[in-house]
Amino acid sequence: xxxxxxxxxxxxxxxxxxxxxxxxxxxxxxxxxxxxxxxxxxxxxxxxxxxxxxxxxxxxxxxxxxxxxxxxxxxxxxxxxxxxxxxxxxxxxxxxxxxxxxxxxxxxxxxxxxxxxxxxxxxxxxxxxxxxxxxxxxxxxxxxxxxxxxxxxxxxxxxxxxxxxxxxxxxxxxxxxxxxxxxxxxxxxxxxxxxxxxxxxxxxxxxxxxxxxxxxxxxxxxxxxxxxxxxxxxxxxxxxxxxxxxxxxxxxxxxxxxxxxxxxxxxxxxxxxxxxxxxxxxxxxxxxxxxxxxxxxxxxxxxxxxxxxxxxxxxxxxxxxxxxxxxxxxxxxxxxxxxxxxxxxxxxxxxxxxxxxxxxxxxxxxxxxxxxxxxxxxxxxxxxxxxxxxxxxxxxxxxxxxxxxxxxxxxxxxxxxxxxxxxxxxxxxxxxxxxxxxxxxxxxxxxxxxxxxxxxxxxxxxxxxxxxxxxxxxxxxxxxxxxxxxxxxxxxxxxxxxxxxxxxxxxxxxxxxxxxxxxxxxxxxxxxxxxxxxxxxxxxxxxxxxxxxxxxxxxxxxxxxxxxxxxxxxxxxxxxxxxxxxxxxxxxxxxxxxxxxxxxxxxxxxxxxxxxxxxxxxxxxxxxxxx
Length: 627
Prior knowledge:
Keywords: ATP-binding, Chaperone, Cytoplasm, Nucleotide-binding, Stress response. The chain is an alpha+beta fold. It has 21 helices and 22 strands.
């Protein structure tokens, strides 16, 4: 038997296009060919289970080998095999129409996966690295004869009688000069580890040395010797393919360490398993992330039938869960997936919604079952929850029941609990509930203490996204306003009446204002004299809440960069009822008044960590002189 012919693609331009547009991602040839071999092995296994194949299945392994001298890479399986007619059908007749239109459409393409995925060209990815490909195959069908197919990368092929004696297929790649980097054990091992670690059929790549016990020495201690064993690349039954009821915590933790050997143990995990309206399995882990906001992304691995596709899962996993770790496997996502496919596919959108719901349900369950444990983990998972509530309306609806607010005393409250707590003392004269918060408890300690003296509670909102979370809370909570604790003096943060009277006369207030403006000498500071509690500080420096918030958001990238570039402007509140102000007014000389005012102002700056450099040096010197 010998036959020559032309591959039915209606154009001679197809191979140059495949080579040109797929070259940048040429390592996927091995993924494609090994995946095909696994499919063939699984199919013969399926036929045997149905009674349609009566022969001995044997060892259904896929073997990958290379010969550096002959410059070949061989992928062998013991699967279905193919007859000469089947080779002509499946290999020669590339299943798409309008090849000329294809050439025109993709002449500027850059995405290798887009081309392969759209037109089923997986096998032909071999020609990215090979100048010739041979197929040696023997079908499982009774009486089938072995066949050999050869193609040199043009549209010409040759089929002849083969010499394979057992069922299955060998794909032999004759590697071209540009791709000889793949004729390397470590390179091939790296690619197999990346794409084939969890395939359902054993993948064997050469051998490896293992140490085994070999009797005992004279003292009765075990002796060991080194033996060569098959180098099996993969775990054929990873935990996401099993039922959660068959797994222990140790199994999940062991698998996590396989994926992320350098990471701390995760907080907990979610086992995904759904078969309608789409197929999806997987395990998602909640790692300890704290505030390492950008460092932990792209840790979820996407698989299709246990074949690794990518760790860029932005369209499949909601944005706020990109900080999770783990695996997702869905046969409804094609192996050769492109970004444009992900963005348009209906199943992908359903998967995205399902994962959001599953995560929200799991968090709600953990909160209800063991609140103390949930609270102890809040420092790690709060970032996920807040991010989700900001970005996903449906997640907010569920998250509001288990999202926690933490105050400066370390106490935790749900949003409803906290609103109820504030009704007693933090409602202003207009009926607005005022939530006070700090984003730096140490730096703003003086303001926190002033608020605490009035029995005001202060939340700690200091994560990278809390500036955005604050806006979300104000939008969602009725008649509620959030103010940073240093946005104003304590008496003015929650306005309940017209405030305390100022003991200074109008002329005295004007004089104090002029003294401080001269002492400060900086137009970025606006001076105001007010009647406050005499126990409050003589001078307080504040920034208006809106401007502070916009600047905080600008730092975390919220489309507020305009505010981030604006100069800082502060309000200097002089407590007209404080005895220090009376002392300033009664100082004997203008110089003494200015020095006292400057000292009081610098003390206010010092209390907020705003005093440094030359100003700090002068403050210390002045303080020594005043002692």
